[in-house]
Amino acid sequence: MVKHKHYRPPGKKKEGNAARYITRSQAVKQLQVSLPLFRKLCILKGVFPREPKKKVKGNHHTYYHLKDVSFIQHEPLLERLREIRAYERKVKKADAKKNRDRANLLRQRRPTYRLDKIILQRYPNFIDALRDLDDCLTMVHLFAALPAIEERIEVKRIHNCRRLSHEWQAYISRTHKLRKVFVSVKGIYYQAEVKGQKVTWLTPHPLQQVLTEDIDFNIMLNFLEFYEALLAFVNCHLYRSINVKYPPILDPRLEALAADLYALSRYFDANSQSAVLDPQASSLSGSGNVESQQIGDSVSESELRLAQLQHQLPSNEPGALMHLVKDVAGEEEEDDDTRECKKLFKDMKFFLNREVYRESLLFVIPAFGGTVSWEGDGAPFEENDESITHQIVDRPMHGRQTLAREYVQPQWVYDCINARIILPTGGYLAGRDPPPHLSPFVDNEAEGYVPDYAETINQWKTAGRSEVLPLPGVGKEDLEDPQNLLTEGVIDRAKAKEAVEKKKKMMALERQYHDELNKELHGVPHSSSVSNIDNRISGKETEDKEEFDDDSELAKLVLSRRERGNLEAAEKGIKRKKDHIDVIRERKRKLKESQKSKEG
Question: How many other CB atoms sit within 10 Å of the CB of residue 467?
Fold first, then answer.
């Protein structure tokens, strides 16, 4: 009798790949669940198909490891899902019998489940959760930007994603953990460094999303269910590490007015002096559900929290959470990168025009030490605030510019973040084509090509300061007016303002000289008004003398050689005219004294 190669006598156990791997159909039959429920269990438990070296059943099957299937089979969640399925049959039966009261009662008492134990099984250490956070953040930020559709995506899922994403951004921004930002066609890439782990995620552009029919949202919602729980667990751990209560409680009245900054500021002020939550009483729940465990003072907090979860948050911004973790001491000391990022936009105040993508800039600017506001209700300061240093615009400004601030495009903020220096604003002025936006995720030396703008930035870094280089085709000697110098990007706005003030002072002195000279020539006596003007001008000159002398050298450095010569010539001419006026006054005084002596 000839035995076949794969012949197995009756009663003998299987060996090799046939014993270690089973197909998806066999796994579903072994677990006694439906295919959608099997997919959901695999997603929650982290079980993925395998590729055995030898596929016993053929290449057209999907294989799973036998130990993974047994791992799912002993999961308590499996029994809970079976109970929920049986409960749904009761609701369906009540609807079929048109027993609406019983159906409504059953829907209110619908059983739920939690994913805390599954998260602890998959991520025993917090560092393990941070390493697997890239896809989680990308998925949550994606659903936070999608429209709510009744048959596919519920409204509460969208709001929960927005809340979790803003809580994460608030922590990253306030603790200055953001490292890289890149704006691409797909969206905006961010990279942060949390507890030594680099976390990279992608956020979509603020455009209207169109949902197509060829996407299976059931699988994506299963992933989202686990990611929501994971991100809530991570946010809770991070907030507790800096001694801040989680989840934050917002006043729904201020939320409706988009005044999230003030709402969270009030919350932080009310809870900054309170004790930190008991670590043993904390729940590692990732579902985001809130349980009221205290009586008395906690009643109002529970009502506010419930209002927060039920209230629609279309205007909720990540900047609303900045004051929540303000001036709190973290567990770990700041490293060199954190200190460098914290001081990049220090002492700078930004104002965002309404055409600018507000949510991204509200996230990145405070992460690097800047102060930001916007146009609308709940803004920290208005557009007419004189302390604003930079205004972010995305369209040309016609007739509304002031010399006290810089008007730059949003790309300037991102390029400064990636370069870690304050770049010149000449190439980023409104209405201009900005320089190329280089990706910080590309290693130019490894690629063997360094862009020209990257070499220019490296030269500025080596020099220790961002020197303003002359633009091609622009000669400094041809730019007579400081406003033209500013427009062409040769000088910055502060130096142009100083030059304009110097020019106004010289013109005022020249007009004063001509007025006094005309009065002296016509024999008009020196009136009290003229003397008061002289006294005021002399007093002002004595007050501004030191400031004028200190800034004269700086103003001369801004101007070209021809302009410096004209300035020195004008100063000499004014000095000669002043001396001439003094001589005429002295002669008149002597003439009056001689006339009085003769009359006496």
Answer: 9
